Amino acid sequence: MRQIKLTGREATVVRVIGFAEGMLGAEIQDNARMELEDLTDTLNGLLSAGFVESIPYSEQVDMAEMPGMTFEVNAAYTHQLREALFR
User: Fold this and answer.
1) Considering the domain boundaries, does residue 2 fall inside one?
2) For the chain, how are helix, strand and coil distributed in percent, rounded to 5?
3) C-alpha distance from residue 8 to each of 55, 59, 62, 68, 85 (Å)
4) Domain of residue 66, residue span
5) What was the pLDDT predicted at 1?
6) What is the DSSP letter of 4?
7) Alpha helices in 22-75 (DSSP H)
8) Distance between CA atoms of 35 and 33, rounded to whole angstroms?
9) With a cut of 50, which residues of the chain have pLDDT below it?
10) CA torsion angle for 39, 20, 31, 47 (degrees, to 10)?
11) Does residue 26 belong to any structural domain of this protein?
């Protein structure tokens, strides 16, 4: 099992999304207090790593569609992401 290391922005987004249920992109932006471009870049990084999934499924999101999409933490990485957040 590999050890996950998150940047500050990635950790913020994962904390905001939480581990229970998905969250709309607009809610993530409000709670994370990040600019739309920064949040979209961070979400795309998490999506490409497989740590976060989008509903509907997409390998990459753009700024126009991000606020209306739902994002959730990939259940396969829940344990490792929790450890990464508390390190």
Assistant:
1) no
2) 55, 10, 35
3) 24, 22, 21, 24, 10
4) 8-86
5) 59
6) P
7) 25-32, 36-49
8) 7
9) none
10) 0
11) yes
